[in-house]
Each structure stands twice: as structure tokens, then as C-alpha cells.
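pinned: reference chain
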Amino acid sequence: MRLLIPQLSVLLMSLRLLGTAEDSVAQINKPVNGTATFHYGFKLGAKTKCTIWKTSQGVKREVAEYRNQYFNVSDDELKARAVFNQTELMIQNLAMTDSGAYYLKCWLAPNRISVFNLTVYKPVQQPVIKTECQCGCNDCNCTLYCQDPTNSSSAHWVILHNSMPVNNSSESTIWIPLGNTSKSTKYMCVLQNPADQRNASIGFEQLCFTSRYSKFLCWVWSYWKTCIYVTMAVLVILPIIVLAKKIKEAVLRKLRGYFPSWRTEVDNQNKEGRLGDMEMTSVKSKLKDNKAVLRKLRGYFPSWRTEVDNQNKECRMGDMEMASVKSQLLDNTG
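pinned: its C-alpha cells
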């Protein structure tokens, strides 16, 4: 009987392990200082017991355990940053040393093994775009380089038209003719790793300014469609205006030929208008001459000038007396 007890214990342990279900390995990629969250896929019960191990560089160690509905974190590196609850594990402020495989083994309702592989990456740096343009008589061929200052991320290009991606290039270097680039086209340099991504873009104007063309030519090139439309409008509208004027003159000449009396009347009106203008001019010149003569006569006859001034004064005095008499009459009537 005593020999059967150890055998029964081994059998029970084997049955327990056989009844444990293992989930597929979940891959989690996060940047440094990020947060990794792993969902168990089941809820821990009141009687459940769990142990969490971490394997990194071939070294396996226990980092936490779940007993009596409470998690106890035994790993010093994770104590201040790991948060466990009944449905998920969360590690905050990630460091490069947090990378590794994490195993969560539970038994006693439910019997499960959950595994997730955490990889922590360095943050992606802002990409640097370098351009080189070789210009000929007809066009400029530009070479664009998408560069990573740290050489730790993969680089590729995305071509945008009106802010919508239209083409991708898996290479870090592309060659483009400047003539095929419109104002609405942009070339976006993308740096990325499995956990982070950064991008920078360059458009037609920046490319054109790095070439040998002046700012004025770049402006003309960017608005070449507008320039063509304006030129076409001028070339079409101007002849129409000149033609309309000529047609109007021809119609008037024909009408005058059909209606001689109307033509004579119009000519007479024009003549009268010219004569009236001449008469007005003659009257104005005569008035100017008379004023000049009067000024000279006053200079030659001072007494006559004084007499005229006295008459003006008497007239003003008479006006004042008349006003006084009118006011007295009004007062008497009231």
C-alpha cells in the first residue's frame, strides 16, 4: 500500500498537466518608455493559482505568482512597473531589458498556459531627406535619399498626390525627373521598426529650389497650368473685342447709307455741338479780356475806383437800414 502512494501522486500530477491548455504565443512590439498589455484570454477564479516566468537570453526566472486572489511580484525590476489583475498583465515605462518571453501558468479552474513574447525597440528618430539634382537643358533629374541618423530603422518612400498615397518604394533612394512633379505631389520618407514610425516629406517647391532654377522659374513652373489658361483667355477675348468693334462700325456705316436723313441729322447735331463749344470758348475769352481792361482802368483812375467803393458801401448801408425797418414793422405788428 505504501508503494502505491507515490505512484498515485505522479499519476495525478500527470493528469493535471495533461488537462492544461496552452494558448498560442502572442507577439508584442513596443518602444522604449511605452506600455505593454497582455490579455490572458480568461479570468482568474477564487481558487486559481498561477506562476509567471520570464525567459531572456536562455535564462528563466520567476517574476510573480498569484495566490489567494492576490499577485505578488518577486522581480525587483518589475515591482514598480508591473500591474496584474484578473484579466491582464501590464508593464509600464518599458526598458530594453524587459524584452523576453513571459509564461503564465495557471491551474485549479482554469488550467491554462499563456505565453507572450515582448520585444522592446528604441524609438525611431526623425528622418533626414537629402537631395541631389542634375539639370540639363530640358529637365532636372533629382535623387532623394531617406536617411536614418542612427541606422537602426528600415527606410522606404511613399509618393502622395493630393495627400493620398499613389505609389510606394521599398528602397531608401529614389530617382525622379522634376518635370514629372506637380505642385500637389509630395515624397514622404518613412522610417520604422516593428514598434514605432516617423516620417518627413518634400514637395515640388523644395526640390525646385535645390536645383539651378531661380525662384521665379520655379513659381512659373508650379503654376504653368494657370499661366496657360490666362494666356489662352487673353488670346481669345482680345480678338473678339476688336472684331466686335469693327462689326459695330461697319453696321453703323451701312445704316447711315440706308438712312441719309438720319445721317444728315447726326452730322448737324455734331456740327451744332462743335459750334456751341466754340461759342462758349469765345464768350469765356471775352469775359477774361473785359476783366483785364477794368483792372487797368481802376489803376489809371483812382478817384473812379474810390467812387465805386463808396457806392458799394452806400448799398451795404442801405441794405442794413432796410433790414432794421423790416424788424421794427414786425415788432409793431406783433
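why pinned: Confidence is low (pLDDT under 50) at residues 1-19. The longest helix spans residues 260-300.
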